[in-house]
From TrEMBL:
<dbReference type="Pfam" id="PF13302">
    <property type="entry name" value="Acetyltransf_3"/>
</dbReference>
<feature type="domain" description="N-acetyltransferase">
    <location>
        <begin position="22"/>
        <end position="188"/>
    </location>
</feature>
<dbReference type="InterPro" id="IPR000182">
    <property type="entry name" value="GNAT_dom"/>
</dbReference>
<dbReference type="InterPro" id="IPR051531">
    <property type="entry name" value="N-acetyltransferase"/>
</dbReference>
<dbReference type="InterPro" id="IPR016181">
    <property type="entry name" value="Acyl_CoA_acyltransferase"/>
</dbReference>
<protein>
    <submittedName>
        <fullName>GNAT family protein</fullName>
    </submittedName>
</protein>
Length: 196
């Protein structure tokens, strides 16, 4: 980040975060081997944005992304990871300063051995809470290949709305040009859905 951006915007959050069943914390270099254990599986690798060739390259890649990567633990075991990338909103030049660091893009991967139990939903809901309450962001987005039905359902379960469906706008390493989707949630929408 440049200009008046904080060098570590996620430092404003009191880590770790706890939900009913999970702990969400900042990733560490030592998490590379555990996360590789599920990230290299075909059912996960099929949908993630980058698939390193081997464990060593994954270690390097995770080290580069530690500032925006979180891990999800269940009973002390890492069962997934989350990405939160703080971004600027689009703005005209004269008011661009007010658009700095006001939104985030989210991403996730879950160990398939722990799928179907609501862990990803629970973790992403808590991440949304942190984005809107702890970080004071105004908007959160997430994108996926349209065929990634599990991610689309997750985005809908946490209250995000589909804002975009691009026709053959996303290049998949195996499938070629396929449809992509973009979901979003505004702070006022999230706050309006929280119990009083």
């Amino acid at each position: 980040m440049t200009g008046s951006h904080p060098t570590d915007p996620l430092a404003a959050v009191a880590w770790p975060l706890r939900t009913e069943r999970l702990l969400v914390r900042r990733a560490e270099a030592a998490d590379a081997d555990t996360t590789w254990g599920y990230r290299h599986l075909a059912e996960v690798a099929r949908w993630v944005g980058v698939q390193p060739a081997d464990r060593a390259r994954w270690r390097d890649l995770l080290a580069e992304r530690l500032h925006r990567t979180l891990v999800v633990e269940l009973g002390g075991r890492v069962v997934g990871d989350l990405m939160v990338r703080i971004e600027d909103g689009w703005a005209q030049h004269e008011c661009a300063g007010r658009a700095r660091g006001v939104q985030a893009e989210l991403g996730w991967a879950l160990d398939p051995a722990f799928g179907g139990r609501g862990y990803a939903t629970e973790a992403v809901r808590e991440l949304l809470r942190a984005c809107f309450e702890d970080l004071g962001l105004r908007r959160v987005t997430a994108s996926a290949f349209a065929a990634n039905e599990a991610s689309c359902r997750l985005m809908e379960r946490v209250g995000m709305r589909c804002e975009l469906r691009g026709v053959r706008d996303s290049l998949h390493r195996d499938l070629g040009w396929v449809d992509g989707v973009g979901y979003a949630l505004l702070a006022e929408e999230w706050h309006g859905r929280q119990p009083a």
